[in-house]
Amino acid sequence: MNDIPTVWDWTGNLLDGLRITLLVTLFGTLLMIAIAIVLGLMARSHRIAVRGVARVVIEFFRGTSLPIQLFFLFFGLPLLGLRFEPLACGVIAFGLNYGAYGAEVVRGSINAVPKPQWEAATALNLSAWQRMTRVIWPQAIPLMIPSMNNLFIQLLKSTPLLYAISLADIMTKAEDFRKAGGDATLMYLALMVIYFVMAYAVTLLSNMAEVIAKTRLGQHAGLRSVFTFSKPKPAEEAKLVDASSAAGGPGGAR
Amino acid sequence: MNFDLEYAGDILPDLLVAFVQYTLVATALGIAVAAVLGLLFAVIRQLRIPVVTQLLTAFIEFIRSTPLLVQLFFLFYALPGMGVTLSPMMAGVTGLGLHYACYMADVYRSGIDAVPRGQWEASVALQLPPRMTWQRVVLPQAIRNVLPSLGNYAIAMFKETPFLAFITVPELLHQAQEVGANTYEYVEPFALAGLIFLAASYPTALLLRRLERRLETR
């Protein structure tokens, strides 16, 4: 009989699992953003058919619970002749579910851009495309980021569900550890700390993105630090320096 | 293979029983725990007791940014090692309640912050003891303002009850999986489970939106 493993012995396994978790989080987030933008724009269309489709899709994916959607994708769809890899199942389920929530954020933020901005863009004879890309979106993006950050973290926090669709994510590795007789308390605490650090990193990135987006608008002082864990003033100022130097760079082009 | 209506009709009663018996009960108990605990957290934070408040804030942030599933597993699999054994349902309700209490604490806090300064000052001028100030002046106004947000978290919690399936609570998702495993027909049980959730959460969300609008106009 082997020795009882310690959390330290399991570091390699956890890192393997973490890679899968991060992969699904990353692609899930990208899909979520894409779906949020498409559905969000559709939901403010003037055509009732387009708006209706968007509303039905949004309410459907918001209303049916995420674990059920995931299970449907993983267990149900293959029987209907459509089989996805577990990894793709995770990405699709997270992307669709949180994309539907994100669509409301996109819609709300675009609607929150003051009406005179739209009128001014029209008065300046900007095309519809220019009006959106040059005037409306740059102002809507900083409004979206705090709520989007919340959704990114929700998505990240849902990734342990991958354990249920036989994907070797970090939760699965932790469960293997428990089943191998390891100290479950320590492992779950370690897992929570890992997730906490990741969530914190996501928040920091979002805050930076917000500062960058606002700096481009010339509103860099107006920091809304609702989602910061503590409110470290000097750190914010440090980010401001980053932001202003990166404003014209690739980080600012969104 | 297609959607088999007859089969769906056969399994629907079982699913509904699991839904009412476990999902709805867990939701109701979870909301009760979260609402009370959240209020307690918010008031303690507002009282600014030196060390307690900081510890509580750290705890809330930690719970909020770690996955519910890990917390549930902790309660269900790790606590027995420390001599506390909870039944699956107890662990589930505690996990849901604690997790959402941390969200609701912030909602309550925003409600408390939104109560005008003058209300506090008036309470002092009237020589109301702190207990009365909270009970009769601040909280009734604060809670009324944040009722829709609390409701939204209640719906969010409702949609996370399927997580309890993973700690062996035989709620809707668990039941759907069991039914599917017996017949190898997974499409209908999961589709029905999703529709049951939609049928329960969407009307509630609409009601909340109406409540929100009514509270705004006053």
TrEMBL record, chain B:
Membrane-spanning parts: 20-43, 190-208
UniProt keyword annotation of Cell membrane present: yes
Keywords for the protein's UniProt record, in alphabetical order: Amino-acid transport, Cell membrane, Membrane, Transmembrane, Transmembrane helix, Transport
Domain ABC transmembrane type-1: 20-208
Topology within the bilayer: Multi-pass membrane protein
Intracellular or extracellular location(s): Cell membrane
Main location class: membrane
Similarity comment text for this entry: Belongs to the binding-protein-dependent transport system permease family.
Protein name: Ectoine/hydroxyectoine ABC transporter permease subunit EhuD
Record organism: Prauserella alba
